[in-house]
Design a protein that fits this description.
The structure is a homodimer of 236-residue chains. With 236 residues, chain A is of the alpha/beta class. Chain A has helices at 20-26, 30-34, 42-46, 69-80, 98-101, 121-137, 157-173, 185-196, 200-217, 229-234, and strands at 10-12, 37-39, 49-55, 66-68, 84-88, 106-109. In chain A, 44% of the residues lie in helices and 11% in strands. Chains A and B meet through helix 6, helix 7, helix 8 and helix 9 of A and helix 6, helix 7, helix 8 and helix 9 of B.
Chain lengths: 236, 236
């Protein structure tokens, strides 16, 4: 990371941290380790991000759209103008689970030998950071404006996750989703809304609709984790 | 090397070879180690080459011309048509001596953070091999399936429009949308789903959910323009 000018590292549930072996291997990059943020969940690590890119050598069923590393670097830089973006890497042995990948809006792959395509974690991180540096300094500054009429700022990761929870609740209470037999409905909807790259205003509209539906189906008082947020904000 | 499709490795005076630790670390790339040529001098390793590129982070007085990795990859490929070319790397601790670099026709550097520019040997090898692979397939990119697995065919225009009608009906019946004061909610949702480029399967899921919500809110029999379509299709 440091060789390419990146500095912010978040670790989710590291087995050992801080760890003398890690410090020794970091050589003069131990400042990155010292400043690393340790999180107890992926959602905590991703809080505040507007776009997350998951590095994955494998194709994922229902995974978000996949970009090769070089194209991804340009895309990442263009999104970085809108808010915090994150690159998500799995650990050396297990990589990322499907559930983790589905929390991201893009997957990134490194074009490799199809007969032997899995790079070491360190190599993959190095490559991505290298592509980011070159994309950032290539003399062709990325176009930052992605203005689309009526666009509101991108939704933050935690707001998108709350929307999914709310959607799931309505899917269950309406009888559409049987938790005993979920039929991959939720991953499929994650894939859809992930492609759309939800904006803050859209989240408010969608949650306002879910609120209204809940009130209608249980008139005694709808369960709602953020009372009044949805409809009110959507009116803006 | 193997992840990027390269296979020929020459080792000059290795301290330990073969070495069980190297074999273990090579994972499924141990065939590269088995076929490695062991040489007793650099000249022996370079015999028969028409061009040698030395990787070096440091600027060398009197060294050969320096190219950044990406440019070097194109140059290397163009020379490869003329005969054997080699990439020369120093060992992890000492790198290459000036005398060794001067046996080469080019040096290659990896654009990096000027405050921390020295990559690990493995990272440098990985990066160069990656650039070579991309340069080799530039213009003739290896077939990469960009399709997101489980994508169903794109939804037909009329199905999308029926979905919007259905959505609007639920928005009104739930009290979320006041037809007298629509506040551009529908155009905003059209914009969202338009960006996502809905697939047929997704339309079925969304309409199945709308059906279920309608059944719940008016148990006497939901109005439905295409009875049974939504939920049934989503179950496929």
């Amino acid at each position: 990371m440091k060789t390419m000018g990146l500095s912010r590292l978040s670790l989710v549930n590291p087995k050992h941290f801080p760890d003398p072996q890690a410090v020794a291997r970091a050589a003069d990059a131990d400042d990155i380790l010292e400043q690393a943020q340790v999180c107890s969940s992926l959602d905590e690590a991703l809080a505040g991000t507007v776009q997350v890119y998951a590095l994955s050598a494998r194709h994922r069923n229902l995974g978000p759209p996949a970009l090769p590393a070089r194209e991804a670097a340009t895309d990442i830089l263009s999104r970085a103008g809108e808010g915090e973006v994150a690159l998500l890497f799995g650990n050396e042995t297990a990589g990322l689970s499907n559930a983790e990948v589905q929390r991201c809006q893009r997957t990134v792959f490194i074009p490799a030998n199809p007969d032997y395509s899995s790079l070491n974690l360190a190599s993959a991180v190095q490559l991505l950071c290298y592509e980011l540096r070159l994309a950032a300094f290539d003399g062709h500054p990325p176009v930052v404006t992605r203005a689309v009429p009526f666009a509101s700022p991108p939704a933050a990761h935690e707001d998108v996750e709350r929307f999914y929870l709310h959607l799931e609740r309505v899917m269950v209470s309406s009888g559409f989703l049987d938790p005993q037999r979920p039929r991959r409905l939720l991953p499929k909807l994650r894939r859809l809304f992930g492609r759309a790259e939800l904006e803050r205003d859209e989240i408010n509209i969608l949650r306002g609709l879910l609120d209204a539906v809940e009130r209608k189906t249980s008139p005694g008082g709808a369960p709602c984790d953020t009372p009044g947020e949805g409809l009110g904000s959507a009116a803006k």
